[in-house]
Design a protein that fits this description.
Layout lengths: L1 E8 L2 H20 L4 E9 L7 E7 L2 H4 L2 H5 L12 E10 L11 E6 L4 H5 L5 E8 L5 E8 L13 E6 L4 E2 L11
Length: 181
């Protein structure tokens, strides 16, 4: 299953410190939780969606309600909570593992259907919300080489483009080992 956390951050003074905490402390702590398999952070390149997106491959909802998750960093934003806005969490089914998005690639999401992604020559994967906010109910995700999308600002409404902020981290039980950049 795919666990997503989306938000924006309203304090430019502490935003860099918060990003360092999230990318280099929180993600490694989460990937150490039993049942977490991959974790990666992204930053939106267009308006119309929360600025930050974290995507995790996990075994299921019970991972997020367990004691190990709470102890290792689930919800550990007390210091920055007052600055976190537009916060959303969802659990999606339909894809077992989130694909790794590399520095020369974009993550491309649509909640309006796969057609616009197909028109870009991408191979979208469908996911549907099964827990938490359940909105958007359906999403399609794909990745693209950066040079394959000529003008981000001219893409249709409803397509969200993200660049990776970290490499995809993987758990010790997964064969691919990620590293933060």
């Amino acid at each position: 299953m795919i666990y997503t956390v989306e938000c924006s951050f309203a304090d430019p003074v502490s935003e860099g410190e918060w990003n360092n905490f999230y990318s280099f402390d929180k993600l490694p702590a989460l990937i150490s939780v039993s049942g977490f398999h991959t974790s990666q952070r992204f930053k939106a390149l267009r308006v119309g969606c929360p600025v930050y997106l974290a995507m995790h491959s996990i075994d299921g909802l019970e991972i997020l309600t367990g004691e190990e998750y709470r102890q290792k960093g689930g919800g550990n934003f007390a210091r920055w909570q007052q600055h976190i806005t537009d916060w959303h969490r969802n659990l999606y089914d339909g894809v077992e593992r989130v694909m790794a998005v590399h520095d020369d690639e974009y993550l491309v999401l649509s909640a309006t259907g796969p057609e616009s992604l197909l028109e870009l020559g991408l191979a979208p994967q469908a996911i549907h919300a099964v827990a938490m906010e359940k909105f958007p109910e359906r999403r399609w995700l794909a990745k693209s080489k950066r040079d394959e999308i000529a003008d981000i600002d001219r893409l249709p409404d409803g397509i969200h483009i993200y660049e990776p902020m970290t490499a995809q981290l993987t758990s010790g039980s997964d064969p691919i080992v990620g590293k933060a950049r």
